């Protein structure tokens, strides 16, 4: 049983990491698109951010030095990531459900980190972890685990309820959307039950991670706990394969689209990329485009099919 | 209560419209438009239209797709549509918007947060067809099914949709029920963009099937590339018209104005939306007077497209967009000007300053600036002697989406209006949170069939509410009121809306640009530049 648990944990983590990285890589290697920003852009001059302004408000803007205001970006990004600020502002009813769900997941991710640290520290310095530090760490990850699990499950139930009862959401809810939320509930529910119902002699969560790290096949993992771990590992592997990977997509929608106001200057890296794209050979079929798969974008854009034609 | 439209209804085989709006269904308006029964009845599409073109979506028809005569024709159109859909997701064909489009396809959480931000959805009385995600969800299902070749598992995860000609024809129309104002995208917690999806859908139809709005393509970008301007004015005609405007300005202000043409090495190449020259000649006239009085070394260009900043390709076609943008840059390059300044036209601002930024390379990458900043510099630095008391009437400022939310030019025009209009009041909300005038993305110039009825009743309704609220304390017809709209397309929409509801005659609400307000309070000019007559 322990081997199955280890394999599931390892595979789930690996698939999550690889699939997440692959998705990020796919977006990152996409061509630089035409600018499509939306204001306010928070890395602008703070005085301009107040009203949503841009450098286009400055006379002869191209002669001025532009400063990238990272603090301004963080002021928007951090509350957005942690507290789903946009949802709170524009869709409060859903935020009451979505925020606990997401915040619960963050806490659970943090808990996993703490458990891992405790496991490694326990192997490296057992005496240290047997002391007050170990006790404090155990207390912290236990509380955070309970809080995270409770918030995530309450949020998931709330989201599922809203998806199934709100007419505005129902039209757009697919079987997959319902399954996704149920998957969270079942995986977290079984894991919670497995932890709560395990016998005092059964291995702790930290011991399980230590077992994974040392590949200790002698560890006896109770069936329910094993099922919970396997389900959570499957869930971790499943998430980046779906739209729930919006934690990846969101980075790009914000940084590469909404906030991408980077100017194309002569001789810049952007211009070099654009020059390359203009050699692409499209094959759009409408006659007015004049694309035949041989002509480049540059050819098409610099050809005026109507020049000299009579009105 | 009406039945809620389902996504699957889009594939319905009959040509019966999926929805019908009555005035009572629409978002209520404040006084004096607060009684739906007194509102105009919508014109009904004629049998000739319904029998010959595809109008199975709603009460109107924007792009007049001829009905296929045979099943084979239908199948061929569907095949082309799917081929175009594939092309939207390839680097070679759509590097211009590939990344944002894929992100919007793959990460919508379907939370509907965007819906309440959409003025069309709200104005329609929350009709499902106009929900911003309705269109996007259809495209998303097509993406997973056709582009990603999703099977049963994908359909289970992402939802299924039956692909047939009625769906394709309705989607083409539905792409023209969005102003592309992107207010919805601004509220999306994920950053998905329904406006972009509508934009890309229009591109697909135009670039693959040659289906587009005649007003934007044949009478728009094609005409501009053919004769120089989508107004149909050749360079000879436009010079004649400007000469007449100069003379008229002299008469009205007492200040001699002579618009310079093709001045090599000028500091500023000013490009107007040429529609101004025909519809609102006082606007280019006022520009000429202000720039000359401020001592700016400026010029107009008589090159093909160099005197018309319009770039309708922005709304429906990348190839047309790029061609016109390059023409603008070439006109500036030929004259060797220091910068291009865009007149009062929102989409021209965004087209040449923002979007074309990644098309113009090398020596075509000539600095572009908004006239708002140049005017702010002139007004706020005291380069003109102004008497704000001449503008002592209620003024509100409309924020063109392209200029404000999509380009970040928010304050310059406000600084001017605050300085020269003592009775200025904001609409709510305003700035980057503004609402579209309802004429955005080409609607202001689209008037085929009964499309105007839809644009007045639905897409322009929220803006009308804002205007009436802004002037709620002064609706009495004895008080002249002015909507300052520094954008040609927005002015077109205001002109038509105010006329439709007779708000000039009944309540004395006029509209106009920003430069007219400046000239109206120039001490050196004869008083009364703003003509308080309907035009």
What's this, in brief?
The complex is a heterodimer of chains A (311) and B (535). With 311 residues, chain A is mostly helical. Chain A has helices spanning 2-28, 46-49, 70-83, 85-90, 92-124, 126-130, 132-165, 167-170, 175-197, 205-214, 223-238, 246-258, 269-277, 297-302.
Report on this model:
The complex is a heterodimer of chains A (311) and B (535). Chain A is an all-alpha fold and 311 residues long. Helix content of chain A is 66%, strand content 0%. Chain A has a domain at 278-302. Chain A has helices spanning 2-28, 46-49, 70-83, 85-90, 92-124, 126-130, 132-165, 167-170, 175-197, 205-214, 223-238, 246-258, 269-277, 297-302. The N and C termini of chain A lie far apart (81 Å). Chain B folds into three domains: 7-209, no CATH class; 217-376, 3-Layer(aba) Sandwich (Rossmann fold); 385-520. In chain B, strand 3 (339-342), helix 16 and strand 4 (368-370) form a beta-alpha-beta unit. Chain B starts with 46 loop residues before the first helix and ends in a 15-residue tail after the last helix. The mean pLDDT of chain B is 96. At the A-B interface, helix 4, helix 8, helix 9, helix 12 and helix 13 of A face helix 2, helix 3, helix 4, helix 7 and helix 9 of B.
Structure annotation, total helices of chain B: 23
The helix content of chain B is: 40-55%
First-last Cα distance of chain B? 41 Å
Order of helices and strands of chain A: HHHHHHHHHHHHHH
- Domain module tally of chain B: 3
Unreliable stretches of chain B, pLDDT < 50, 5 or more residues? none
- Pair of chains with the largest interface and how many residues each contributes: A-B, 94 and 98 residues
Return the structural class of chain A: mainly alpha
Please give the oligomerization state of what you see: heterodimer
Q: How many strands of chain A?
A: 0
DSSP E strands of chain B, number: 8
The rough form of chain B would be described as globular
How would you sum up the major sheet of chain B?
4 strands, parallel
- Rg of chain A from C-alpha positions? 26 Å
Proportion of residues in β-strands of chain B: under 5%
């Amino acid at each position: 049983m322990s081997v199955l648990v280890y394999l599931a944990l390892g595979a789930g983590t690996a698939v999550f990491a690889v699939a997440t990285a692959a998705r990020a890589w796919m977006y990152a290697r996409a061509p630089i698109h035409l600018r499509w920003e939306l204001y306010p852009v928070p890395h602008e001059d703070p005085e301009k951010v107040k009203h949503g302004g841009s450098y286009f408000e400055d006379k002869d803007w191209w002669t001025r030095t532009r400063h990238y205001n990272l603090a301004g970006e963080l002021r928007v990004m951090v509350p957005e990531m942690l507290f789903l600020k946009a949802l709170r502002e524009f869709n409060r009813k859903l935020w009451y459900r979505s925020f606990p769900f997401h915040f619960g997941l963050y806490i659970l991710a943090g808990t996993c980190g703490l458990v891992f640290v405790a496991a490694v520290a326990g192997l490296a310095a057992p005496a240290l972890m047997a002391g007050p530090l170990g006790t404090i760490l155990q207390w912290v990850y236990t509380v955070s685990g309970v809080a995270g699990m409770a918030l995530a499950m309450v949020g998931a139930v709330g989201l599922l309820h809203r998806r199934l009862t709100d007419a505005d959401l129902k039209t757009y809810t697919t079987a997959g959307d319902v399954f996704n939320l149920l998957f969270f509930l079942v995986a977290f529910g079984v894991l919670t039950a497995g932890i709560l119902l395990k016998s005092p002699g059964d291995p702790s969560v930290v011991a399980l991670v230590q077992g994974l790290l040392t590949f200790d096949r002698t560890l006896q993992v109770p069936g329910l706990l094993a099922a919970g771990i396997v389900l959570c590992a499957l869930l971790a592997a499943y998430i980046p394969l779906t739209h729930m990977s919006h934690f990846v997509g969101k980075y790009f929608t914000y940084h590469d689209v909404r906030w991408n106001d980077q100017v194309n200057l002569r001789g810049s890296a952007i211009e070099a990329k654009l020059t390359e794209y203009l050699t692409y050979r499209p094959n759009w079929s409408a006659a007015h485009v004049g694309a035949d798969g041989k002509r480049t974008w540059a050819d098409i854009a610099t050809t005026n099919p109507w020049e000299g034609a009579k009105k | 209560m009406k039945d809620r439209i389902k996504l699957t209804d889009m594939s319905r085989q009959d040509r019966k419209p999926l929805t019908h709006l009555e005035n009572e269904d629409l978002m209520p308006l404040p006084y004096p438009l607060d009684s739906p029964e007194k509102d105009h009845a919508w014109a009904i599409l004629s049998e000739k239209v319904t029998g010959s073109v595809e109008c199975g979506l709603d009460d109107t028809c924007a792009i007049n797709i001829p009905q296929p005569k045979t099943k084979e024709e239908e199948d061929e159109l569907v095949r082309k549509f799917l081929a175009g859909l594939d092309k939207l997701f390839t680097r070679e064909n759509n590097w211009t918007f590939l990344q944002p489009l894929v992100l919007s396809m793959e990460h919508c959480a379907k939370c509907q947060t965007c819906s309440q931000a959409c003025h069309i959805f709200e104005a329609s009385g929350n009709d499902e067809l106009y929900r911003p995600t309705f269109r996007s969800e259809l495209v998303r299902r097509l993406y997973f099914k056709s582009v990603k070749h999703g099977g049963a598992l994908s359909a289970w995860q992402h939802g299924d949709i039956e692909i047939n000609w009625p769906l394709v024809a309705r989607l083409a129309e539905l792409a023209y029920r969005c102003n592309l104002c992107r207010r919805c995208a601004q509220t999306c917690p994920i950053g998905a963009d329904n406006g972009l999806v509508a934009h890309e859908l229009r591109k697909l139809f135009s670039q693959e099937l040659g289906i587009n709005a005649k007003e934007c393509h044949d009478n728009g970008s094609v005409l501009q590339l053919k004769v120089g301007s989508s107004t149909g004015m050749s360079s000879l005609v436009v010079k004649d018209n400007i000469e007449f405007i100069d003379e008229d300005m002299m008469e009205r202000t007492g200040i001699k104005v002579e618009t310079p043409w093709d001045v090599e090495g000028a500091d500023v190449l000013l490009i107007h939306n040429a529609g101004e020259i025909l519809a609102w000649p006082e606007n280019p006239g006022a520009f000429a007077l202000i720039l000359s009085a401020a001592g700016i070394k400026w010029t107009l260009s008589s090159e093909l497209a160099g005197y018309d900043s319009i770039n309708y390709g922005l709304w429906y076609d990348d190839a047309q967009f790029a061609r016109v943008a390059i023409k603008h840059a070439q006109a500036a390059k030929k004259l060797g000007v220091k910068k291009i300044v865009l007149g009062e036209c929102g989409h021209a601002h965004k087209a040449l300053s923002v979007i074309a930024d990644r098309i113009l390379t090398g020596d075509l990458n000539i600095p572009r600036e908004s006239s708002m900043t140049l005017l702010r510099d002139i007004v706020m630095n005291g380069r003109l002697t102004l008497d704000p008391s001449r503008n002592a009437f209620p003024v509100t400022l409309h924020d063109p989406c392209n200029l404000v939310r999509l380009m970040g030019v928010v304050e310059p025009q406000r600084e001017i209006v605050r300085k020269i209009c003592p009775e200025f009041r904001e609409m709510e909300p305003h700035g980057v949170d503004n609402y579209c005038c309802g004429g955005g993305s080409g609607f202001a110039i689209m008037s085929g069939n009964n499309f105007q009825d839809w644009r007045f009743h639905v897409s322009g309704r929220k803006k009308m509410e804002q205007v009436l609220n802004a002037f709620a304390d002064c609706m009495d017809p004895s008080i002249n009121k002015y909507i300052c709209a520094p954008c040609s397309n927005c002015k077109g929409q205001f002109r038509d809306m105010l006329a439709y509801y007779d708000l000039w005659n009944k309540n004395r609400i006029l509209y106009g640009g920003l430069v007219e307000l400046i000239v109206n309070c120039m001490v050196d000019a004869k008083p009364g530049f703003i003509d308080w007559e309907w035009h």
